[in-house]
Write a structure and sequence with these properties.
- The structure holds two protein chains of two kinds.
- Chain A is mainly alpha-helical.
- Chain A is built from six helices and four strands, in the order ββββαααααα.
- In chain A, the strands form two sheets. Chain A has a two-stranded antiparallel ribbon with strand order 1-4.
- In chain A, helix 2 packs across helix 3.
- Chain B is mainly alpha-helical.
- Chain B has a domain of 80 residues.
- Chain B has five helices and no strands.
- The chains are: A mainly alpha, B mainly alpha.
């Protein structure tokens, strides 16, 4: 049976060394570039005609746009509008990474969202950005949210460290959630695929059962790819809301 | 084509859209209710992640402070306790389906307000 972990291996496509640092163009980098190219092509070509009554492609592009625009409006409010380009790019990048990662592309097929360093880098950008926005809008008053109103002052010794840890754990929980879902899903797919080959290789009939199961799990994985992109984006919106409207 | 023979009356369309949106927001509330309508597996996974991450971050901060001040192992012991507390708090907050805002008191207050509004 194929090694279910092997799919997460980063393989260089073009070897590059800059000042002793390995900056090879890898399968991960290739999939990131493809995600950006496919997303850009999809979003620009589909709205090229700019018709009042949208066609199929244009409706899809508008669906994405309105989905994120409404998410920002509901969760952040009107001040969130200027962060739309960032949030939309984040959503599209995660979504296309998840979806393209499900395609069985030979040699370079790879899911970059299944590597924690990738998801952590995105979560860290969100976290640092939100913290900077919070301090820029509220100054040192932003620190007030680490201590609840009305609690006795003596409890600050315990409450403040707990709230600070809770705040600092956000980028980690945001990145771990996406990474764990994608990694677990892809391992399950690979193992079931291995069952299909080994059982189906012996007799045709027993191979059908894991194959049917594999089909169902693939559908589930498509759902998870969409859901995790949604969760990543909506949590970004909620953090943004926190930084903009302090309570 | 049919669309070109019947040019849509934009003003009328706009009016109908506005009415439909108003109806929808009346039914669903201004904020989309149930921000996280996750499956059971997703919900369980989320709680586990929230708890573990709190402990890990607490231990990490303690380890860093120990290295900084040279007080091994006391800071790590202390912050492991704080981290566990914040992990429990995160998990509890996620389980109660409160929002993911910072500050337990604020989240509690908002959850109570939301309950009262219903």
């Amino acid at each position: 049976m194929a090694n279910p972990i092997e799919q997460f291996k980063i393989k260089p496509i073009i070897d590059l060394q800059v000042g002793g640092i390995d900056v090879s163009f890898t399968n991960s980098a290739f999939m990131m570039v493809s995600a950006v190219v496919v997303a850009t092509a999809f979003l620009t070509l589909s709205v090229r005609s700019r018709s009042l009554i949208p066609g199929r492609w244009q409706s899809m592009a508008e669906l994405f746009y309105e989905f994120i625009a409404n998410m920002l409006k509901d969760n952040v409010g009107s001040e969130g509008r200027k962060y739309f380009p960032f949030v939309f790019s984040l959503f599209i990048f995660v979504l296309f990474g998840n979806i393209l990662g499900l395609l069985p592309i030979p040699v370079v097929g790879f899911t970059y969202t299944s590597h924690i360093i990738v998801t952590f880098a995105m979560a860290a950008v969100v976290f640092i950005g939100v913290t900077v926005i919070g301090f820029a809008r509220h100054g040192l008053h932003f620190l007030r949210m680490f201590f609840p109103h009305g609690a006795p002052l003596a409890t600050a010794v315990v409450l403040i460290p707990i709230e600070v840890i809770s705040y600092l754990s956000r980028p980690l929980s945001l990145s771990v959630r996406l990474f764990a879902n994608m990694t677990a899903g892809h391992i399950i797919l690979k193992i079931l695929g291995g069952f299909v080959v080994t059982l189906g290789g012996m007799y045709i009939l027993p191979g059908i059962l894991p194959f049917a199961f594999l089909g169902a799990v693939t559908l589930l994985e498509i759902g998870i790819a969409l859901l995790q992109a949604y969760v990543f984006t909506i949590l970004t919106c909620i953090y943004l809301h926190d930084a903009i409207h302090m309570h | 084509m049919a669309e070109q023979e019947l040019p849509p009356n934009l003003d009328e369309l706009e009016e109908r859209l506005r009415a439909a949106r108003a109806r929808e927001s009346e039914e669903n509330g201004p904020k989309s209710a149930g921000r996280h309508s996750l499956s059971g597996l997703g919900q369980g996974m989320r709680l586990a992640v929230e708890f573990v991450v709190g402990v890990v971050v607490g231990a990490g901060i303690g380890w860093g402070l120990d290295r900084w001040f040279g007080t091994q192992p006391w800071m790590m012991v202390l912050f492991l306790v704080f981290g566990t507390a914040s992990g429990v708090m995160n998990a509890y907050r996620a389980a109660r389906r409160m929002d993911d805002t910072v500050g337990f008191a604020a989240a509690q207050k908002r959850a109570d307000e939301a309950d009262r509004d219903k």
